[in-house]
Structures are given as structure tokens and as C-alpha cells.
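User: Quick sanity check before I run a bigger batch. Here is a single chain. Can you write out its predicted 3D structure?
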Amino acid sequence: MDVLMVSSIGLGAVDVDMASGFDEFVVQRVLKNRKLAESCLKDVAERLQSQGRNIFLASEDGILHNFWQYAEEEDSGICIHFENVPIMQEVVEILESRDLNPYEISARGIGFAAVTNGMQFVDEFLRDYPQYFGLIGVIGYLTKGTERVMLQRGEKRYLVPPGRSWC
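Assistant: Done. Predicted structure follows.
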């Protein structure tokens, strides 16, 4: 099963106060995408429910811990291709200006779902909702067993459960 991700890392954590001091165009773009991501999550959830599937809503933990939690929820292993995980450069800059790590900040507003033929699901969804381009994509797949890994530039890293730190 392919793993879909809806939204973008850190997008749900950025608000107007956090973005103060940045160019108004950047702030408006981030806030517009945040609102779009909320709508996209709702529309994806409805489509999945019509197919008998559910969406996993990320917790206040960072995205890396949420990958673990999602695999736990699915009772499987997971392989995430990190290059496929969406993140906006503007969000990175806003968070880093506040000394916040985009990968450790709350992942609220992000959803995951396991689907067969993920790319086909995304293509069909985006045909119906082209305004959500960039806010939904296949980021990996579920595996048999319990191995939970992230691939980044050919390097394999093991995910750690919530409550444990990345060494």
C-alpha cells in the first residue's frame, strides 16, 4: 500500500504572529496554502471515506514521530522517501527565524492514508481538485513487519518512536 501525505511540513504551525516581519507576499502565500491544505485534507478524507478508508490525522508531535505513529496505527512497517515529503521553503524560513525545527514542530493539519495505486489516486484527485497541486502526494509505502525507515539521498535512517530523541 502506498502512503499519501496531505498538507506540508510545518504549515499548520505557522500563524500570522509567527510570520510577522516577513514580506507580506510571503505571509499571504503561506496563509493561503494553510487554508488550502485544510480544505484539501477535508476533501481527501471524504473521498477516502467513500472508498471505505480513513485518514490518519497527525498529532502535535513532529512529522518524524508521526510517521512512526502512523505505521503503528496501520500495524505495519513503513518506508518514507524523504525527498517526496512536501515542505514550503517559506515555512522553513519562518520557522528557522524563530529557532524552530520544521521537523520537530507540531504536525497538526497533516493527514496520512494508505491506498492501493497511490499515484492513480493522486492523479484522479487532482483532476477533480487542481487547486490542491503540491498539497497531496505519495511519500512512501507500508511494509510487512515492523521496520520503520526513512530513505534520504540513498541513506537509510530508522525512525524512532515518540518520546525518544533523534541521536
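The mean pLDDT is 92.

User: Great, the batch can go ahead then.
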